[in-house]
Amino acid sequence: MRILIADDHALFRDGLRSLLMAQGHEVVGEAKNGREAVDLARDIKPDLVLMDLQMPELDGLEATRLITVDMPEVKVVVLTASDEEAKLFEAIKSGAQGYLLKNLEADAFFEMLERARRGEPALTPVLARKLLQEFARPAEASAEEPLTIREREVLELMVEGVTSNRKLAKRLGVSENTVKFHVRNILDKLRLHNRAEVVGYAFRHGILDPPAR
Asked: Fold for domain 149-205?
């Protein structure tokens, strides 16, 4: 994979770069703050960004939001020392493909990267359990216009990490223009502005629960 490292600690970047390259990955860029991460992601178009959270100028959460909205084909995996649940929830709502702690063993780390490469959530069992518990809370009442069956299918794929129009169209067997139409309807109905907000909304409000039969 072509990987961009975003972390404000030079020694950590050096060690991570060596580890990734030893496993055959290509480190195509390094950023020492969130603003650099966004700019480099736009210029380089890496397959994946390993994003720290605590960085100057622009923090990792905001950088993740910007990258996932502007470049949905670029996967972002948070790599942080913080195990705060609030940070985990916010990172996933911001569009991150995964959330990994820096004390992870190397084998588990590369297993998670492979999951991210395949478009699967990159979460350890402990963090996945926390996430499920949070999103399993009763949904808030909503007066928004209900989504159609096809719109729910689009939303489910977006939550799984399939966010580009091309990939959505391929998975659904429709044209990219049709996908754009459905995404626009979802945004309008939920009164949201971008795909990252849609995914976060879906988690918070439980709108992907199967409809009653």
From this structure: Arc Repressor Mutant, subunit A (1.10.10)
